[in-house]
Amino acid sequence: MQIAGNLALLTDLYQLTMVGGYVREGKTNQWANFDYFFRRVPDDGGYCVLAGLEDLIQYIVNLRFTQDDLSYLESLGLFPKEVLDYLESFKFTGDLWAMPEGTVVFPHEPLIRVKAPLPQAQLIETALLNIMNFQTLIATKAARVCWAANGGPVVDFGLRRAHGPNGGLMASRAAYIGGAEGTSNVLAGRLYGIPVRGTHAHSWVESFPSEIEAFRAYVKSYPDTSILLVDTYDTLRSGVPNAIQVAKELKEMGYRLRGIRLDSGDLAYLSKEARKMLDDAGFKDAIIVASSDLDEWLIESLRRQGARVDVWGVGTRLVTSYTTPALGGVYKLTALDEDGKRMVPKIKRSDNPDKITNPGVKKVVRMFDPSGQMRGDVIFLEEERLPRGRSFRAHHPVYPHVYKTYPEDFQMEELLVPIFQKGKLVYKSPPLKEIRDNTLKNLAKLDPAYKRFHNPHVYHVSLSPRLYRVKQMLLKKATEGFLAAK
Question: What is the value of pTM for the model shown?
Answer without folding.
Answer: 0.96
